[in-house]
Design brief:
alpha+beta; BirA Bifunctional Protein, domain 2; 21% strand; elongated; binds adenosine-5'-triphosphate; binds magnesium ion
Length: 431
Amino acid sequence: MEINLPKGTHDVILDEARAYEKIETLFKAVADLYGFSELRTPIIEATELFTRSVGDSSDIVRKEMYTFKDKGDRSITLRPELTAGVMRSIVNNKLFATQDLPIKVYYLGPAFRYERPQLGRYRQFNQFGVESVGITSPLSDAEVIMMGYAALKMLGFGHITLKINTLGDDESRKAYRVALKEYFGKHLDKMCPDCHERYESNPLRILDCKVPEDIEIVKKAPKISDYLTEAAQESFEFVLATLANFDIKYEVDESLVRGLDYYSHVVFEFHYTTEAGVSLGALGAGGHYDNLVSELGGPALSGVGLAFGIERIYGVLENDKLLQDVKEETDFYVMPLGDNALLDAYMIAQALRGAGYRTEVCFENKGFKTLFKRAEHKGSKYAVIIGDTEMQAEQVTLKNLKTQEQITVKYADLIDKADQLFAVEDDHDHH
Ligand code: ATP
Ligand code: MG
């Protein structure tokens, strides 16, 4: 009986897996360039970690978490995002006491949200993200945004829209919340049930509502910019000025509030529209937080982070054909001609692999046509051909599959020959 995938999940296969690998490798390299180190946390965490950090009023905690009791009756949740686990780890391991500040880490791995599956929206998806913890300077905020921007540029995106907003400090938000309650209080009877709940728990969340009638009401709501303290205003302007200084274009979007409860000050999203006009939603998003580390029992350290969705990035890159060179490639395809040659071919393949060459070998007695087809499918640069004549002379026929040139090489000289050929090739690549 064939078993299907759980709804909202997907396999990543062959060329697609190679593309993921490429995207992830690039993210890691850029993070490394900016001084971030990897941190890996478990996929399962205590449920309380997310209710305390992501927040009770967020959609994630209210309806998207995979939560279950384990056999020891503990409430466990599959992480819906990775920031909370990273903060827990920083607190548990007291990194703030042993590392210089800011603590700069990156992460990569699957996240789980019980959402309605649609284009660019899965129930298991992969996030790459960074966190920089322990410095209050807006330069730290700007650094994370610039790192994200640089990574997208290096992936091949021509134009990126950076939407940015500030949620102010605690004092700004307190004043803004009062203004929002007053305004939405007058319209609540026309608004969706979710907004009724948001009105009680966190009226800022209403700005994020996707119901068309509510969006109209939200449009006329008070703006955060009118409630910012001077310090909050200054900090935001500093981030914007820094971005402008480095030629990073942004759009201030006052309706941007983000789906997680822990943000304050600057929040942002990266968007991209494909040539056909399709947007998969935000490619990545993040912001500054002040109370997250202390909420989890650590000292009062501010931080800033961002997370990219690998599936969405792959989706739009693939759509606009911005991904190149992801086909399978091997250096050698070893071809036994006749049953007698099977073992020698196998031995030669092992030797090539031992010397660091990507090598595939045929296990069956096949005709030339099939063997060359397979070599082509494998993206091989050279064919190593071994038949009876070759075996008797302890040599192989080595054929360059691009130029069709062929030479014979003694078994004993094959690795040296390979080193020579590939040294020349590396040389060409560099010019
Ligand atoms: P959205 O508004 O699209 O639901 P979000 O605000 O919930 O996004 P974040 O929690 O900020 O998203 O997650 C960071 C990134 O992870 C998003 O920008 C997106 O690229 C990706 N992401 C979030 N949820 C999903 C999902 N269900 N499937 C695929 N990618 C996702
Ligand atoms: Mg979401």
